Amino acid sequence: MDEEAQLSEQYSDINRIAIERHSQRLAIAFIVSGLFFMLLPGTFLGVWKLIDISREHTVSGLDPAWLQAHGQAQIFGWIGSFIIGIGFYSLTKMQGTKRFPVRMGWAAWILWTLGITSRWIGGTTGWHWRILLPLSAAVELVAFWLFGRSLRQRRTQGNSKPKEHWLKAVIVSTFGFLAVLVINLVILIHLAQTGDSPALPHALDQKMALLALWGMIVPTIFAFNARWLSLFAGLRQPNWVPFFTAYAFLVVALLTLFTQWRSISAIAFLFSALLAVDALHVWESAVQPAKLLHVHRSFPLFLRMTYIWLVISCILEMLAVPYDRSGGIWGASRHALTVGFIAGMVFAIGQRVLPAFCGMRVLWSTRLMFWSLLLLYLGCALRVIFEPLAYENYWNVAWRALPFSALIELAAVTLFALNIVVTLLLPPAHLRPQVSSVTAS
Ligand code: HEM
Questions:
Q1: 115-127 per-position pLDDT tens digit
Q2: Is the CB of 93 under 6 A from ligand 1?
């Protein structure tokens, strides 16, 4: 090899390392801010409010702005930050081009974090909320646009190979995310002009929560699952026709959500979930061994169980349409979706992929991974069983179980955060003399 070729190869190696470092640092920033939103403005607030609700024996006495701030922190602050952080890391890396969009990435992180924080402060304190709320939604939208722009740039500069199906699903989900942010902005501008408090009216708020959960988070999970379930859990490759039909049912469900046909919407959500289960072969035997290095051996089981929560959530949603009177069945359905399916998925897959995405690290403790998932599912089961019984006044004793469910979930979330934070604080595996003994347990 001549000198020039050698130099060019060395340059491209240095460049590749620089790109890797930039994308890892950005992923870490999104993950750490996401963990913060999950813990304090999200879970801690949710636990506190559930204890208040259980003491009062009703949800109606609470300020809805606080509950909405909890939902916002979890959906956009936690899950939204994780989606964008993982997207920046994995998608820009996949395009395989020569520069990482450093400035755009950091600008997106600053704006996104600012937007979420100002929405939370405006909602909970009411401080200049008529300005702060629409501004927060606009800032979040600009942050997301920067994220989308850097992905698009990579695509046009990068290779021109035909896109894989799972990547098409990721693109569809990205448009879902964008649509949710645009609708959020329009609604908050309208609220600022016509409303008399920073809380959205109840019926609209419930629909917006469903729109964000099913229009932005669920499709993204389906898309990444299409890539990762076969890779990590050894499941068969997805069947693409039922897989994309699940997306079509999601669209039908979301469109009918805003009409009188709530039962059609609920049925369409259930069909979408069942089609995804079938297409991704979630409950079929694995065709190759799962990749269990550096994760707990129960990982595939917990992964499959998330889809049980998804189906339970849809069934409860169908029951909520005719029978819900005080928000108990609907609340249980939402909790099965948010904690059982979404948080369960993040705890399982997240502890598998995040250490690698954040600098080729190894998960600190596989034991903590197991306990975080077990406690999460236990807390979720208590909540999903007892919330309808208590809220709908079927069984008064059920009120006593709800604070326990909240505290168990708080413990689960804290263990998850602790495991990720210590993992990030420890040096990457290749810089350590030997991988910590806790990991091997
Ligand atoms: C981990 C423990 C959690 C606790 C203790 C908790 C608690 C609560 C409580 C008490 C409510 C009020 C409505 C009701 O009584 O059902 C609520 C609503 C809500 N939660 Fe959670 N939650 C938790 C996790 C999550 C997660 C992980 C998400 C999303 C990823 C989430 C999203 C929401 C949403 C969207 C609402 C509706 C807010 C609104 O009315 O606008 N929650 N939660």
A1: 999 999 999 999 9
A2: no
Count of residues in the chain: 441
Q: How far apart are CA 112 and CA 30, in angstroms?
A: 9
Ligand 1 atom nearest to CA at 68: 41
Task: Record the tokens describing residue 127, joined without a space.
Answer: 């401080």
CA-wise closest residue to 359 among 17, 13, 9, 15: 17
Q: Is 17 exposed, middle or buried (0-12, 13-18, 19+ CB in 10 A)?
A: exposed
Q: CB 326: neighbour CB atoms within 10 A?
A: 15
Is the CB of residue 71 below 6 angstroms from any atom belonging to ligand 1? yes
Instruction: Determine the residue type at 315.
Output: I
Q: Please, what is the angle between helix 202-212 and helix 64-72, to 10°?
A: 10
Atom of ligand 1 nearest to the CA of 376: 1
Is the full-model pTM beyond 0.90? yes
Q: What is the DSSP annotation of 116-149?
A: HHHHHHHHHH-TTHHHHHHHHHHHHHHHHHHHHH
Task: Please write the tens of the pLDDT for every residue from 245-287.
Answer: 999 999 999 999 999 899 999 999 999 999 999 999 999 999 9
Q: Is the CB of 79 under 6 A from ligand 1?
A: yes
Kindly write down the DSSP assignment for every residue of 143-172, as one continuous string: HHHHHHHHHHHHHHHS--PPPPHHHHHHHH
Cα 286 to its chain centre, rounded Å, is 25
Out of 45, 72, 335, mutate this one to test ligand 1's pocket (max ligand atoms within 8 Å of CB): namely 335
The set of residues, in sequence order, having a beta carbon less than 8 Å from that of 174 and lying 6+ positions away, is: 87, 148, 151, 220
Which residues, 6 or more positions from 42, have their beta carbon under 8 angstroms from its beta carbon? 70, 73, 74, 77, 78
Q: What are the angstrom distances between the C-alpha of 77 and each of 84, 174, 230, 377?
A: 11, 17, 29, 22
